């Protein structure tokens, strides 16, 4: 398998070939996803929720994310690994954004970075890409702004459609190689996808995006509690793992494990 680079994603858009992106936060899952042929892995700041147990992505720090990026890069040598810039690490200025992106490239060995926002972060995207770092943008519902967006709500409805299109064009013009659209009406996401020359990656944005992304724990049924409407569970890994832990503990208690074949 060849190493995936941004131009491959561009070619896939040109040829109408859809692709899947997944999050990953460690070496072992990154290896499995690479073996499954997933071309792009995102070390999302959703690690805040699924790795660190925070309620939102707001508190997670650069120092909490960089070690996760290193593990994913080692586990998936052919995937394009994108690292999310966390809340507070890029909004102030293009200089701040470039300094943070550089840390993720140098210390995390990521291949690209992702940040949230449209028009308002275009200068940041321009500064990072000018330094030779590919940027994936993220528009529509942007979880780091949950407090100002009034909760987990679909974006780009009604009057919001115009702003969404403006944001999509702004990030493409600033140099982004791809853009995530989260919780956007399928019709608007389709319009944006046809309008842009860079690939769109949907999450809760319908079937007309060039690619799709899900948090892997959601995709694999490893998340506890209720999941969003846009999630489909392709496995029940959580039930399997809980069952395995319980079976192991039961065999230890009963003396069935370890058996003779596990002993020296
Ligand atoms: O952090 C994340 O997991 C994300 C994706 C869901 C797009 O930003
Ligand atoms: Na994110």
Automatic annotation (TrEMBL):
GO molecular function, one term: 3-methyl-2-oxobutanoate hydroxymethyltransferase activity
Cofactor or coenzyme needed: Mg(2+)
Pathway the protein acts in: Cofactor biosynthesis; (R)-pantothenate biosynthesis; (R)-pantoate from 3-methyl-2-oxobutanoate: step 1/2
Reaction catalysed by this enzyme: (6R)-5,10-methylene-5,6,7,8-tetrahydrofolate + 3-methyl-2-oxobutanoate + H2O = 2-dehydropantoate + (6S)-5,6,7,8-tetrahydrofolate
Cofactor annotation remark: Binds 1 Mg(2+) ion per subunit.
Subunit structure: Homodecamer; pentamer of dimers.
Main function: Catalyzes the reversible reaction in which hydroxymethyl group from 5,10-methylenetetrahydrofolate is transferred onto alpha-ketoisovalerate to form ketopantoate.
Protein name per UniProt: 3-methyl-2-oxobutanoate hydroxymethyltransferase
Annotated organism of origin: Rhodococcus oryzae
Taxon lineage: Bacteria, Bacillati, Actinomycetota, Actinomycetes, Mycobacteriales
